[in-house]
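Students often ask why inverse folding is considered easier than folding. One informal answer: many sequences map to the same fold, so there is more than one right answer. In these notes we will look at a single instance of the problem. The structure comes first.
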C-alpha cells in the first residue's frame, strides 16, 4: 500500500522544496539516469507561492515500458520497494525503505505519453502561469485541510472537481500551440509575461470601446484580460513586429464550440492602424483555425461604428449578416 498521510497538514510555500527536489532528483539520476528521459517536480510543492502538504512528488519519465524492468531492478537494489500502479494506469509507484536524509516524497515512474504524467504537467504549468487559479486552489486546499484534517481521502476527493476543470481547460485543445510568422510579424502565445504591453493597449479608450470593455486602469485588470484568454478554450496570440520584437496587438479565437466553431477577435494599437498589419496577422490565424483546429465556422462580431474592422473582415472573405443586433454586425466564414 502507498504510504498515507495520517493528518492533513497544509503549510505555506517553502522555497527549500525546490532545493530538496533537485537533491532527490540527483540521487535518482545516479541510479537510473541513463535509461530515463527526465525527473519532473509535480504536485503542489512544485508551484511557487502555493501552500501545500510538505511532500515532494516526483514523476520519473521513461520513453516506454520496455525499460521498466531495468528501472525496477536498479531501484530495488538501491532500497526502493516496487508497488505496481496502485490501481492507477500510467504510473508505477516506488516506496523508499531506507533513510536517505530527505523529507517525505512520492516517487512515480511514468511513460512520456501516460495520462497521469501528462495531466500532472498540464496542471502544474497552468497554476504556475495563472495567479488567480493558484489563489483559488490554495483557498480550497486550506479550507479542505481544516474540514478534513483527519480524513485524507475526503481531502483528496473534494479537490477533484477543481482539478478536472483545470485539466479541461488545458487539455481540451487537440492541437499544438504554434508560433505563427509572416514577412513582418511574429505571433506567439499571449501570457502574463506581456501584462505591461496589454495594459498599455487596453488603457486606450478607443481600443476598449470596440472590445466592449472598460479601459484598463490597473495592471491587475490587464492580468485578468490575459487570464481570460488563457482559461478560455480558444487560442490567443500576441502580435509582434518581427525585427523589433515590439508588441502591437493581439488576435485569436475564443468561445470554441465542440472544436467546430469559434469566434475570432483582434485588436491593434492605434499607431499601427492603416498599415496592413492585422490583415497580415489574421491570414495565418484563419488558416490555422481551418486546417489545424478543424473549424467549420469562424464568426466575428463588430461594433457598428468600427468601419476598419468591417472592411478588414470583408477583405478576408467573411460574410456579413444582414441583421444588425445590439449595435453589432455579425460576420461568418465557412470552411
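Output (designed amino acids):
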Amino acid at each position: 500500500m502507498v504510504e498515507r498521510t495520517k493528518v492533513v497538514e497544509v503549510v505555506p510555500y517553502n522555497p527549500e522544496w525546490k532545493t530538496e527536489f533537485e537533491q532527490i532528483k540527483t540521487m535518482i539520476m545516479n541510479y537510473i539516469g541513463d535509461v530515463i528521459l527526465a525527473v519532473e517536480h509535480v504536485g503542489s510543492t512544485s508551484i511557487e507561492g502555493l501552500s501545500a502538504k510538505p511532500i515532494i512528488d516526483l514523476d520519473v519519465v521513461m520513453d516506454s515500458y520496455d525499460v521498466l524492468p531495468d528501472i525496477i531492478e536498479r531501484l530495488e537494489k538501491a532500497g526502493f520497494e516496487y508497488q505496481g500502479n496502485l490501481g492507477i494506469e500510467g504510473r508505477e509507484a516506488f516506496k523508499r525503505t531506507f533513510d536517505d536524509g530527505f523529507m517525505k516524497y512520492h516517487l512515480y515512474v511514468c511513460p512520456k505519453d501516460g495520462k497521469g504524467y501528462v495531466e500532472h504537467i498540464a496542471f502544474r504549468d497552468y497554476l504556475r502561469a495563472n495567479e488567480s487559479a493558484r489563489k483559488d486552489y490554495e483557498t480550497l486546499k486550506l479550507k479542505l485541510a481544516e474540514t478534513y484534517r483527519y480524513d485524507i481521502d475526503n481531502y483528496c476527493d473534494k479537490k477533484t472537481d477543481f482539478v478536472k476543470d483545470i485539466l479541461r481547460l488545458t487539455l481540451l485543445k487537440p492541437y499544438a500551440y504554434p508560433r505563427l510568422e509572416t514577412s513582418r510579424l511574429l505571433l506567439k502565445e499571449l501570457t502574463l509575461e506581456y501584462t505591461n504591453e496589454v495594459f498599455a493597449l487596453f488603457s486606450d479608450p478607443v481600443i476598449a470601446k470596440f472590445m466592449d470593455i472598460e479601459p484598463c486602469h490597473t495592471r491587475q485588470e490587464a492580468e485578468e484580460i490575459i487570464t481570460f484568454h488563457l482559461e478560455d478554450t480558444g487560442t490567443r496570440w500576441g502580435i509582434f513586429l518581427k525585427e523589433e520584437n515590439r508588441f502591437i496587438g493581439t488576435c485569436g479565437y475564443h468561445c470554441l464550440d465542440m472544436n467546430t466553431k469559434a469566434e475570432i477577435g483582434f485588436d491593434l494599437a492605434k499607431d499601427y492602424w492603416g498599415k496592413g498589419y492585422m490583415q497580415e496577422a489574421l491570414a495565418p490565424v484563419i488558416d490555422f483555425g481551418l486546417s489545424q483546429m478543424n473549424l467549420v465556422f469562424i464568426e466575428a462580431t463588430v461594433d457598428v461604428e468600427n468601419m476598419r474592422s468591417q472592411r478588414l473582415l470583408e477583405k478576408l472573405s467573411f460574410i456579413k449578416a444582414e441583421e444588425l443586433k445590439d449595435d453589432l454586425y455579425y460576420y461568418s466564414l465557412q470552411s
